[in-house]
Amino acid sequence: MDCCIIFALWYFVPLVLLIHLLFFIFGDADFALLWASLVGHKPEDKLKGLVVWVTGASSGIGEELAYQLSKCGSRLILSARREEELKRVKRNCLEYSNLQDDDILVLPLDLLERASHEEKTKAAIQHFGHIDILINNGGRSQRSLFLETSVDVYKALMELNFLGTVSITKHVLPHMIQRATGSIVTVSSVAGLAGVPLGTGYSSSKHALQGFFNSLRTELTSYPKLVISTVCPGPVQSKIVHNAFTEELNKPLATAGDQEHKMSTSRCVRLMLVGIANNVKEMWIAQQPFLLFHYVWQYTPTFAWFVTNILAKKRVQNFKAGLDADSSYFTKPKTS
Ligand SMILES: NC(=O)c1ccc[n+]([C@@H]2O[C@H](COP(=O)([O-])OP(=O)(O)OC[C@H]3O[C@@H](n4cnc5c(N)ncnc54)[C@H](O)[C@@H]3O)[C@@H](O)[C@H]2O)c1
């Protein structure tokens, strides 16, 4: 017996610590999500045949969600503002999966037009009979310093990222409550966990989403099969920087910069689907140093300011040099 305890102490405990350390240093997701990706349910097994509504499905993460979900055999409702883009995504889904035309509903929707959300929800339910998973993905980012930014931009960010999402959720949730089952997954951001320079309004809207969904989850404890999840990605390849708000409402960003250094969209979405298949409540998905930084932020917020200042200074420097703000944090910015 004593031998077993000594064996456990000498070999098992250090091994567990080593695994944690490796996850910590090399992982691109939080412990729960990485663990689920190693030993949990496979999205292909859990999501097959489910009806999934994806907002913001015309580009970036939403578009990739459509492709990977269709390969898993999920039936899809694709929403964003541009119908033609959604039709293109649908064609690609049909080409690369076994889904039939009727398995994918193109449902154009503007998150800002809240008066239309009830009718859109009814249309989705009418087509498939029910909705299993809502993925609140549509949204826009921001690249501008607070002192230079109009308050209208803050209003627009809250209207789109926060109220647009709350509104769709408000219409879908009663349907899921009636069935006592379903998942509402919301794409927040690491900017919803910690502060981020050049994104005071964006970060506020994502913090608002975190607060909203963490609170909503506590109101739904009598529905154990109703899952509320938030996803917090770090920088991921997409059109997010091209589409970001700047100092003024309709002013486009001068240069979006190279996005190559960011996490691939496919890796981010794969991890999201693993999280959804395993009911992970909060998913952190980011390359280093972002992931480590957010652990530090959660465990020792005061110490985190030391790291925050280094990253923040670099982000503003990159922005002022005309680069994408998230260009390398460890080299000098080059403008030429
Ligand atoms: N890419 C990243 O680095 C990153 C990091 C963290 C979080 N996110 C979040 O991921 C989500 C998807 O962003 P992305 O990176 O794929 O960017 P993206 O710009 O490529 O896609 C955004 C999607 O939202 C849609 N959208 C924008 N305004 C809309 C409106 N008024 N009504 C309906 N749809 C609208 C766009 O049409 C598009 O389909 C966003 O919520 C974003 O905040 C992205």
UniProtKB/TrEMBL annotation:
<feature type="transmembrane region" description="Helical">
    <location>
        <begin position="6"/>
        <end position="26"/>
    </location>
</feature>
<comment type="similarity">
    <text>Belongs to the short-chain dehydrogenases/reductases (SDR) family.</text>
</comment>
<dbReference type="Pfam" id="PF00106">
    <property type="entry name" value="adh_short"/>
</dbReference>
<dbReference type="InterPro" id="IPR053011">
    <property type="entry name" value="SDR_family_member_7"/>
</dbReference>
<keyword id="KW-1133">Transmembrane helix</keyword>
<dbReference type="InterPro" id="IPR020904">
    <property type="entry name" value="Sc_DH/Rdtase_CS"/>
</dbReference>
<dbReference type="GO" id="GO:0016491">
    <property type="term" value="F:oxidoreductase activity"/>
</dbReference>
<dbReference type="InterPro" id="IPR036291">
    <property type="entry name" value="NAD(P)-bd_dom_sf"/>
</dbReference>
<keyword id="KW-0560">Oxidoreductase</keyword>
<dbReference type="InterPro" id="IPR002347">
    <property type="entry name" value="SDR_fam"/>
</dbReference>
<keyword id="KW-0812">Transmembrane</keyword>
<keyword id="KW-0472">Membrane</keyword>
<protein>
    <recommendedName>
        <fullName>Dehydrogenase/reductase SDR family member 7</fullName>
    </recommendedName>
</protein>
